[in-house]
Specification:
The complex is a heterodimer of chains A (350) and B (392). Chain A is α+β, with helices and mostly antiparallel strands and 350 residues long. Chain A has 3 domains: 106 residues, Acyl-CoA dehydrogenase/oxidase, N-terminal domain (Butyryl-Coa Dehydrogenase, subunit A, domain 1), CATH 1.10.540; 83 residues, Butyryl-CoA Dehydrogenase, subunit A, domain 2, CATH 2.40.110; 145 residues, Butyryl-CoA Dehydrogenase, subunit A, domain 3 (Up-down Bundle), CATH 1.20.140.10. Chain A is built from 11 helices and 10 strands. In chain A, helix 7 runs parallel beside helix 9 and helix 7 packs antiparallel against helix 10. The longest helix of chain A is centred in the middle third of the chain and has 34 residues. By secondary structure, chain B is of the alpha+beta class. Chain B has 3 domains: 87 residues, Butyryl-Coa Dehydrogenase, subunit A, domain 1, CATH 1.10.540; 107 residues, Beta Barrel (Butyryl-CoA Dehydrogenase, subunit A, domain 2); 137 residues, Butyryl-CoA Dehydrogenase, subunit A, domain 3. Chain B contains 12 helices and 8 strands. A 4-stranded mixed sheet of chain B has the order 1-4-5-8. Chain B has a 4-stranded antiparallel sheet with strand order 2-3-7-6, with no helix packed on it. The radius of gyration of chain B is 22 Å and the shape is globular. The chains are: A alpha+beta (350), B alpha+beta (392). The interface between A and B is large, with 48 and 48 residues.
């Protein structure tokens, strides 16, 4: 037994950190988030693909590296630390579905190489309810509207969930951009009356959903780790009443709780990733646990980070708001907390 | 990263499971709800259970061979605790002796002390209690005032200890006493005292559960042989700090087993009594998720132990997590069950699967004893986060 990363995993972690700090530092991403309507730069996306990141967990036959969920968690944690914008997780999830479906090999290879972008269109309503008609697939055509389609404006094709299964639809389609508070993530509302190809049943989404839960939690882990580090630096420098504010127990105990939640998230995320990689019988419970806990914990930690910075914490100028917003968005997507709680209860047989 | 138990540890676990199946009597919760059960009968039951474990070689396993050791590590000890918890075995009676005094004697005691005290401690013949807290010294333990004055080949003890777990049943107490009133830390010594020594009075204290697991101990000119000093005069604080570090070992796995079992029973009850609304499901789900995070923390600690890493101040995180979760869990269980959850064990209509009302009350103790949550947060902010200290 060993909780620490293996040598290869530690190398992946440090090389990813180096790569991101030179190619995708937050001061650069900030400009992209503020000014690029698509939410990411093509050149940077190509670099990520060249470095093998997009194919990280995908089969070698598709040009991927065939690595596991632990490696994915390592990379996403690093991306969370610097709040990398873009469809990285979305592309990996769609590609995992394509790989599992075993069809569309050419498209899969294009996603891995960064040439094409495919994401999954799931949500049938702008809100959580199911008051709207779900999308359907009839006589070879997809009919309906999907909301919060990740990076829709940049996709070459979409995997659309319908009552009849998952259907591949090629661009172009009608897109109305949707913008949440999180500038690292772009969405669209897409209306379909399109030809499509049924490529898999909903059961293929199960594993994709587990990977989504681990991936999103790992990103939240990165967000909260960095938010805590930044806050620890701040409370030791910022002076009030002739001492660093970090000397006040009113902050110290809350910082201790922030560490507790961050480290507990780390335990949960990497346990879930390990379960997924080893086919452990507790996989479903561990993945739901990681996502549900990380959602609460990252909102708490990033929120406390804003609070402890005081007025400057509420400014656009300081980076923290990107973390705070991203934490909230990730909490609600990739299987919301409510969904994960239901999954956990089902997995435990409650 | 690898969270799989090694083959050797799996073998240990499976042997232990088989042994428990063959040797354990009724689960602890069934013993507790036996109408004939009294506090005294429960102590005797725990004593004989401890003896069985001792004879099977499961106590002091990771100590040197001559003191019951069998070349195992903290990993087997953690597995042992988790498995006992999973089987709902009676809690080990001499937990303070084995958990705290044993390591203190092994690391700081004399050969004669080890030979005299360790075997009856392991077998349960002699029960130990811990004389640390005083009315004026709890979280600020070094403020203790019980004095030990050297008089020939004896110490003369005067003062009072309080919140002394097992005090009413113990045969011996290990005491932190002041041998120098001017030296806050260096003036404290670690002394072993027989409780039937003239001048010692033990009084039961009634706890909020109605039970008297703890008590208070008064010393009035109690004469204790000098040979009962552990280490040197003035080394008491250092010894106490090392043993408290042992007390804060890997406990999350055992806790997650216990809470997980009770949570499963709660979920079953909810189905039975038709408590399946969205609000109840959300509460259950959150408890389940938190308990699984506790388990993940435990697995991480176990893996670190197996990897040869000594737990440091991060065990404060474990302590806060399980004890604070225990409170939320038991409160929520009562909320879900409604008034019936508050029924005491002996009442008509009380549920017999889990003694919910007792667990609810007991959960208030966990965030106080063995370093309160506030003390743990101080430890984290000082030793892990390296934050500047207030007013300094």
């Amino acid at each position: 037994m060993k909780f620490e990363l293996s040598e290869d995993q530690a190398l992946l972690q440090s090389s990813t950190r180096d790569f991101l700090s030179s190619e995708l530092p937050l001061e650069k991403s900030r400009t992209v988030m503020e000014h690029n309507a698509d939410g990411y730069e093509s050149a940077e996306w190509r670099r990520l693909a060249e470095m093998g990141y997009i194919g990280l967990t995908l089969p070698a036959a598709a040009g991927g590296q065939d690595l596991g969920a632990i490696e994915l968690a390592i990379v996403l944690e690093e991306m969370g630390r610097v709040c990398v914008p873009g469809p990285f997780l979305d592309a990996i999830l769609a590609a995992s579905f394509l790989a599992a479906a075993g069809k569309q090999d050419a498209l899969l290879a294009d996603v891995v190489s960064g040439k094409s972008l495919v994401t999954i269109a799931r949500q049938d309503s702008p809100f959580s309810g199911n008051h709207l008609e779900p999308t359907r697939f009839e006589s070879g055509r997809v009919l309906g509207t999907k909301y919060f389609v990740p990076f829709a404006t940049r996709t070459d094709a979409l995997l659309v969930t319908t009552r009849q299964g998952v259907v591949l639809v090629r661009a172009p389609y009608d897109i109305v951009p949707l913008q949440t508070i999180d500038l690292a993530q772009r969405f669209g509302k897409v209306t379909f009356d399109h030809q499509g190809a049924l490529i898999g049943g909903p059961e293929l989404l199960e594993r994709v959903d587990l990977l989504a839960a681990v991936g999103a939690s790992a990103m939240m882990l990165g967000l909260m780790s960095r938010a805590l580090e930044v806050t620890l630096e701040y409370v030791q420098t910022r002076q009030a009443f002739k001492r660093p504010i970090g000397a006040f127990q009113a902050l110290q105990h809350r910082l201790a709780d922030m560490l507790l939640k961050t480290e507990s998230t780390r335990s949960a995320v990497y346990r879930a990733a390990w379960c997924l990689d080893t086919g452990d019988p507790d996989t479903a419970l561990a993945c739901a646990t990681a996502k549900a806990y990380a959602g609460d914990a990252s909102r708490y930690v990033c929120g406390e980070a804003v609070q402890m910075h005081g007025g400057i914490g509420f400014t656009w100028e300081l980076d923290l708001h990107f973390y705070f917003k991203r934490a909230k968005t990730l909490e609600q997507f990739y299987g919301s907390t409510e969904t994960q709680l239901e999954k956990a209860l089902a997995a435990a047989g409650y | 990263m690898d969270l799989q138990l090694s083959d050797q540890h799996v073998m240990f676990r499976d042997e232990l499971r088989a042994w428990l199946k063959a040797n354990m009597g009724r689960p602890w919760r069934e013993e507790l709800r036996d109408p004939k059960a009294t506090e005294d009968s429960m102590i005797e039951l725990r004593r004989s259970w401890q003896r069985k474990l001792y004879e099977a070689g499961y106590l002091g396993m990771h100590w040197p061979a001559e003191w019951g050791g069998r070349g195992t590590t903290e990993v087997e000890k953690s597995i042992f605790e988790a498995e006992l918890s999973r089987a709902d075995a009676p809690p080990i009676l001499n937990v303070l002796g084995i958990g705290l005094l044993g390591p203190a004697l092994i690391h700081h005691g004399s050969e004669a002390q080890r030979r005299r005290f360790i075997p009856p401690m392991l077998s349960g013949e002699e029960i130990w209690c811990q004389g640390f807290s005083e009315p004026g010294a709890g979280s600020d333990l070094a403020a203790l005032r019980t004095s030990a004055v050297v008089d020939g080949d004896h110490f003369v003890l005067n003062g009072q200890k309080i919140w002394t777990t097992f005090g009413p049943w113990a045969d011996w107490i290990f005491v932190l006493a002041r041998t120098d009133s001017k030296d806050r830390y260096g003036g404290i010594s670690f002394i072993l005292v027989k409780l039937d020594t003239p001048g010692i009075t033990v009084r039961r204290l009634r706890q909020i559960t109605g039970e008297s697991e703890f008590g208070e101990v008064f010393f009035e000119d109690a004469r204790v042989p000098r040979e009962n000093l552990v280490g040197q005069i003035g080394e008491g604080w250092r010894i106490a700090m090392t043993v408290l570090a042992f007390e804060r070992g890997a406990t999350s796995l055992a806790a997650a087993e216990r809470y997980g079992r009770d949570l499963g029973l709660l979920a079953r009850t909810c189905k039975e009594i038709g408590r399946e609304s969205g609000a109840v499901r959300e509460k259950l789900g959150r408890l389940l998720v938190e308990n699984e995070v506790l388990r993940a923390n435990g697995l991480r600690m176990l893996a670190n132990l197996a990897d040869g890493k000594v737990p440091g101040p991060e065990s404060s995180i474990e302590k806060i997590f399980w004890s604070e979760f225990d409170k939320r869990f038991r409160e929520t269980a009562l909320d879900i069950l409604g008034p019936g959850g508050q029924l005491v064990r002996t009442s008509a209509e009380a549920r017999l699967d889990v003694d919910w009302s007792r667990e609810f009350l007991w959960s208030r103790a966990g965030t106080i004893y063995s370093g309160s949550s506030e003390v743990q947060r101080n430890i984290i902010s000082k030793r892990v986060l390296n934050l500047p200290q207030e007013g300094r």
